[in-house]
Structure of YlxR family protein:
Amino acid sequence: MNNRKVPLRKCVVTGEMKPKKELVRIVRTKEGEVSIDLTGKKNGRGAYLTLDEQCIIQAKKKNILATQLKASLEDELYEELIQLAKKEKQ
């Protein structure tokens, strides 16, 4: 039997614990670059976000990711996240 534990992560917007696979990781490197980490393995400070359009819009409105990562985020990053969420829905 393969009874591996499913790694859970907390969405910074909803506060829900979800399997890591259901969340997207946003990462800030030491250089201060913020990017979407689809592998979940990049070095740096990470924040997990539910891949849901409403969730992403709320994160942007309340500046949650910027606060969590202690970095300023470009609007393009949010656009990219929304595109990812839309792709995921299909």
